[in-house]
Design goal:
By secondary structure, this protein is α+β, with helices and mostly antiparallel strands. The chain folds into two domains: 47 residues; 120 residues, Beta Barrel (Lipocalin). Helix content is 32%, strand content 41%. It has two helices and eight strands. The chain has an eight-stranded antiparallel beta barrel with strand order 1-2-3-4-5-6-7-8. The longest helix has 45 residues. It starts with a helix and ends with a helix.
Length: 169
């Protein structure tokens, strides 16, 4: 009886270990494929040029409303900075924010706020970028409904190093 119990526990443990390996493999493959997709996007959108502090690809690391993990991109056209969600977001593939630069660390504009019933409203927003330009916080909404999100840069990994390449040309 005792031997049967040990054998059963060993099978369960092996099964759990196998499941863990499958999830780990899936996670690694998913991240690898996503990184490849971002490389294609960055080559098309930023075309080997110096970028402004908000430009690049970011992942949401904190949200007091909605989930984290959303991947978004900021890019510049003329004097306007546009935000578009590109991976793991509630709404993807459309412009979700429009901002103007106040200085190298601050931007103001508006963002779309989406509800689960797919209702969309645009509200004022302000962005404050960290001194190292590798994270930012954004505050959305008006006086009666404000919320904050925090984002971490995933491309380029180091803003200053990336732009330094273009200063030499």
């Amino acid at each position: 009886m005792f031997m049967s119990y040990k054998l059963t526990n060993m099978k369960i443990s092996n099964f759990k270990h196998s499941i863990f390996k499958i999830f780990l493999l899936f996670y690694l493959l998913t991240n690898f494929l996503s990184a490849a997709n971002y490389k294609e996007i960055t080559e098309k959108v930023f075309s080997n040029r110096k970028i402004d502090s908000i430009e690049g690809i970011w992942v949401k690391s904190f949200a007091n409303q909605g989930p984290t993990g959303c991947v978004t991109m900021f890019y510049k056209e003329k004097d306007q900075y546009y935000q578009i969600h590109i991976d793991e977001c509630f709404v993807m593939g459309k412009i979700t924010g429009k901002h103007e630069r106040l200085d190298s660390s601050n931007y103001e504009g508006e963002n779309a706020i989406y509800f689960y019933d797919r209702k969309e409203i645009w509200e004022p927003s302000s962005i404050s970028i960290a001194d190292d330009f590798n994270s930012f916080s954004i505050t959305h909404g008006s006086n009666n409904n404000k919320f904050t999100e925090k984002w971490k840069r995933i491309w380029p990994e180091n803003f200053h190093s990336y732009n330094k390449v273009f200063e030499k040309e």
